[in-house]
Amino acid sequence: MGKMIGKQSISFENPPYIMEGASVVGPKEGEGPLGKLFDVVEQDSMMGQDSWEQAESLFQKEAVQKVLLKAKINKEEIRYIFAGDLLGQLIGTTFGIMEYEIPLFGIYGACSTMGEALSLAAIMVEAGNAEKVIAMTSSHFASAERQFRFPLEYGKQRPYSATWTVTGSGAVIIGKEKGFAKITGITTGKIVDYGVKDAQNMGACMAPAAAEVLCSHFQDFQCFPSDYDKIITGDLGLVGKTILFELLSQKGYDISKVHMDCGVEMFDASAQDTHAGGSGCACAATVLCGYVLKQLKKKAWKRILFIPTGALLSTISFNEGNAVPGIAHCVRIECC
Amino acid sequence: MGKMIGKQSISFENPPYIMEGASVVGPKEGEGPLGKLFDVVEQDSMMGQDSWEQAESLFQKEAVQKVLLKAKINKEEIRYIFAGDLLGQLIGTTFGIMEYEIPLFGIYGACSTMGEALSLAAIMVEAGNAEKVIAMTSSHFASAERQFRFPLEYGKQRPYSATWTVTGSGAVIIGKEKGFAKITGITTGKIVDYGVKDAQNMGACMAPAAAEVLCSHFQDFQCFPSDYDKIITGDLGLVGKTILFELLSQKGYDISKVHMDCGVEMFDASAQDTHAGGSGCACAATVLCGYVLKQLKKKAWKRILFIPTGALLSTISFNEGNAVPGIAHCVRIECC
Fold first, then answer.
1. What is residue B91's predicted lDDT score, i.e. its pLDDT?
2. Is B143 helix (H, G, I), strand (E, B) or coil?
């Protein structure tokens, strides 16, 4: 049974296991520093489809296929999927996983979605409501640019604060059967709005939410940054990371020695012209599956904190003059 | 602890309670047949705001305020909110509940969202992870028309199969403390696509998903329509209801004697020019809070099945030639 800890955390007394993870990425991600670590690098980011949105769905479809193959289980053994993406009404997810005919909980937390998916999946399994579930997300550079900023054809210059939405999908199987890692706790974030109104600077929108949920995590679990081998944020990028360090230092926490940001790791900013780093739901999800879980599997890291960060951006609210609030969710993962 | 039942259901051994519910609606809903039953009827559907989206957020804000007042509890006692709406990136929710500073699980299931919210809230409370949580949704006629169809200024004629999106918000507090009703089980739906491509006929898109999840529910719980005092679908409307009856009769189930559709109840179709009925996330949510829960409170109904139904419509996927798949989630509620 879960145990409420502090104000907004849960400590799992019978931690659910991470049984397997799989990552599928596009060509640009495959050329990045982590390229060799992903399960599948697709050479065509259109996946042979007519639209970017259809391509994104195929990334989800392939990630599910891959994680089932790696775990050697059938889709019938998966009781629920917790999934979402960045597109309006989650169409990446709808058309991506429809064929699997698995009961779905659609979720949205912008780029924090993988944190939300893992949290809810862990709660579901620990409570005895499922043997195995999938937690997953996707994003796609071109579908996200069309959704949130400018169609690619417009050819707008990107400022240095802009991040590059990762094309890909990451899927994890959470279950009762022993895996190589376990989810031992979660801290669920609140919406935090610092009034940032720059849709080309997502890092600045998300950093306050990451700082808020991290402080809550340290307080709720009565732990410190040094208790973790890695504290892994989602896609703050170079700009957001600096703001996070500053905000945390004001609260007396220094995570600089153990911090890693999936967005910073994903691309070689100078060689790949990606500016502030990678972003998108798939950024945290594919780095988790491609890199982080492997470190846990070989026990290079024993205990990590995974904090996907989301910017609650929408063109409608943004064009109506609203700011871009952020949200982030912490997931504590330990190797077995 | 929850107990897995059949293929896609959970039976709660220690059912979480519905402690309170609150409904806030717009003027048109207030003039409908259920008008007197809602807690608040706002006379201005703009809520004094500059945009429809901002107005929708205020409906959410007010619903939370109202349910807390009715339950006589402070916002600090609410550990989590499960909330969502129809707008891209859930901006109705983001700007509606931000000020409450309550950890959020953002969810999306189109108009089935209240079913998903209640399901996850019930799992959370039953597993001992929270004392009290809120499950809620909102929708707004004008923000939904802009999001999914045509801006109101365009003045497009609406076909008779079209439904009218309900303006309002419904919020429920689920908790461990005894309330007047309890959630005894859930059946979580899959995405079902019958290839319907008419964005003005949501009932036809959703009915197959409702039929699928209802059949699964009857099989998983080994029960029959006659075991319920009411089987309440979300917003199938007059067209979708007919299709649902037909699909269920092919499987040997007749729910006609106990069926009620929130969309059909919400408006007086001939007097209010609403065509096939009400729809939107708020349709099922406000009818649940305004009407259904009151029937349970006075024990007029002892056991009901609540099935909000969602059409996974998005203008992007729709304009790219995709169909509109549906999803629906069953929640079994019994009076105490």
1. 94
2. helix
Contact B84 A108 (CB under 8 A): yes
Per-residue pLDDT reduced to its tens digit, A146-205: 888 887 888 888 888 888 999 999 999 999 999 999 999 999 999 999 888 887 888 999
With a CB cutoff of 8 Å and minimum separation 6, the contacts of A142 are A45, A52, A55, A152, A167
- Measured between beta carbons, the chain B residues lying within 8 angstroms of A94 are 191, 312, 314, 317, 325
For the stretch A74-101, what's the b/e string if a residue is b when 16 or more beta carbons lie within 10 angstroms of its beta carbon? Answer: eeeebbbbbbbbbbbbbbbbbbbbbebe
**Does the beta carbon of B14 lie under 8 angstroms from any beta carbon of chain A?**
no
Which residues lie closer than 8 Å to A80 by C-beta, 6 or more apart? A102, A103, A104, A105, A121, A124, A130, A133, A134, B8, B188
For chain A, say whether B74 makes contact (Cβ under 8 Å): no
| Residue A139 touches chain B, beta carbons under 8 Å | no
CB B21 within 8 A of CB B169: no
Tens of pLDDT, residue by residue over B166-190, are 999 999 999 999 999 999 999 999 9
The two structure tokens encoding residue A7 = 């104000």
Q: Report the C-alpha gap between A50 and A72 in whole angstroms.
A: 32
The answer, as to whether pTM is greater than 0.90, is yes
Dist. CA A226–CA A231, nearest whole Å: 9
User: Nearest-CA distance from B153 to chain A in Å?
Assistant: 17
Chain A residues 144-203 with CB within 8 Å of chain B: 146-147, 188-191, 193
A83 touches B at CB < 8 Å: no
A103 and B190 within 8 Å at the Cβ level: the answer is yes
In this structure, what token pair is assigned to residue B16? 């979480």
Q: Does B322 touch chain A (CB under 8 A)?
A: yes
Do A213 and A115 contact (CB within 8 A), yes or no?
A: no
- Please tell me the predicted confidence (pLDDT) of residue B147: 87
Q: Rounded to an integer, what distance in angstroms lies between the CA atom of residue B123 and that of residue A232?
A: 28
A286, A29 contact by CB (below 8 A): yes
The model's confidence at residue A52, banded by pLDDT at 50, 70 and 90, is very high
Provide the β-strand partners of residue A63: none
